[in-house]
Amino acid sequence: MNSTRKWIHAAWDVAFARYLIVGVANTAFAYAVYAAALYLGASYPVASMISLVAGIILSFKTQGKFVFRNNDKGLFGRFVFSWIIAYLINIGLIGLFLEIGVDEFVGGALALPFNVATGYIFQRYFVFGKSRIE
């Protein structure tokens, strides 16, 4: 096995690395939905809500299965609640960016790292539980 493949396999064994890898795909999908909704005329809160709902559907399966190795469908309520909180934080951040003159597209992109960090913390400690990924 070459060194690149060894590094990828080692990184996949670390929950945060798996979260980042899977999260990049989920985040790209969610931002594409957000941008498409803005392009179609939705306001940024509505675009963010549409993006959030689409992202929740994809993320619950991918984060549970690949990141936290927990397929318990009973955790979906906690997962949704964690993303409601993340949505409110995200809207607040985008609103702050708008107040300083950043447009909705860039504001949404700038808020992504905070949304990713918030999501990981909520999912690891509140939704799926730390002990399930060790």
From TrEMBL:
Principal place of residence: membrane
Residue ranges the record marks as coiled coil: none
InterPro entries in alphabetical order: GtrA_CellWall_Glycosyl, GtrA_DPMS_TM
Keyword Secreted: no
Top-level taxon of origin: Bacteria
A single Gene Ontology CC term: plasma membrane
Protein location: Membrane
Ranges annotated as spanning the membrane: 12-32, 38-58, 79-98, 104-122
Membrane topology: Multi-pass membrane protein
Domain annotation GtrA/DPMS transmembrane: ranges: 18-128
GO biological process terms held by the UniProt record: polysaccharide biosynthetic process
Keyword set, alphabetical order: Membrane, Transmembrane, Transmembrane helix
Sequence similarity: Belongs to the GtrA family.
Protein name in the entry: Putative flippase GtrA (Transmembrane translocase of bactoprenol-linked glucose)
Species assigned in the record: Massilia yuzhufengensis
